[in-house]
Amino acid sequence: MSIGDPFKILGINNDASPAEIRKAYRLLAKKYHPDTNKDQAAAQQFLMIQEAYEQISNGANEIDNSIKQKEQQTEDQYQKDLEAYRQKRNAAREKLRQKKQREEAYKLAYLERLKTGNIGRWHQLVAYLGLIMFFILWLDFFLKPRTQALVVESYGIKTYGSIDNHTVQLIKCTDGRYFWCADIHGHQIATSQSLKAIQTPWLHQVKALSFHRDTLLHTTPVHFSFYWAQIWLSLLLIIPIISWYFASADIIFVLGSYVSRYFIFTLILWFLFTENRIVHLFTFGQL
Domains in the chain, ordered, with CATH? Predict the structure, then answer.
């Protein structure tokens, strides 16, 4: 049956709710029901009302089913996307875990190579040698100093700047050692008597120079010498032993190993084999 617009038949808007549709249908059905309305046109109107309600109801069900179907499709797609994301995330986490595991294995293997074999023995040698030299330097620093007579061979003709705006001059002695002393005292040393080095008793580290001029005893510190900064520099000598006993599979130990084996080992050799320090060391300062 063609009835036209079913919403117009029921007298409702196209966006009416299901409750409004049922209410309009009940009122019209009651009004035009053949049992209550004997008008000949009432039966035809009642059929149209029935048809309109069925069309609207079927359309609502179809819309409802379509909405539900779309919602279900959206939910299914969301679950698929979520599962794909979880799989991708788990794969990325596993890849990262394996990468970290490989890096840790490499670090441990590299650490083992640094701790064993020739490299390990080299580092260990520098560690104990540096520790011994550390204690010797500190002990020598606080022992009672000695004096040794010096004879000046030549004087520098230029002056240079030192700390605290001091100007210093280079003096060469007949024993082959060079000393930087204050420029004003350098000129006095040229006419002085009894020039002596005030030095540590064991390694002969010169602390200062003393000399008599007329009847006065003068003392001038020595600049740019190892003794000048040996307390601070001696702290470098304990880096090898620290990096050895606190070794771990990280860049700190690797860097400490390289610094120990090359820089600090070279520093120790330079210190021992200059100014006859190795001779002073093994003769306890007697030679």
Answer: 1-115 (1.10.287.110), 118-282 (no CATH)
| DSSP secondary structure letter of residue 5 | -
pLDDT tens digits, residue range 215-268?
A: 778 888 888 888 878 888 888 999 898 888 876 656 677 788 888 889 999 999
**234-272 burial code (b ≥16 CB/10 A, e <16):** bebbbbbbbbbeebebeeebbebbebbbeebbebbeebb
pTM of the model: 0.58
Render pLDDT for 60-109 as a digit per residue (tens, 0 to 9): 555 455 556 777 788 878 888 888 888 999 999 999 999 988 888 877 77
Specify the long-range contacts of residues 156-163, CB closer than 8 Å, at least 24 apart: 156/186, 159/183, 162/223, 162/224, 163/223
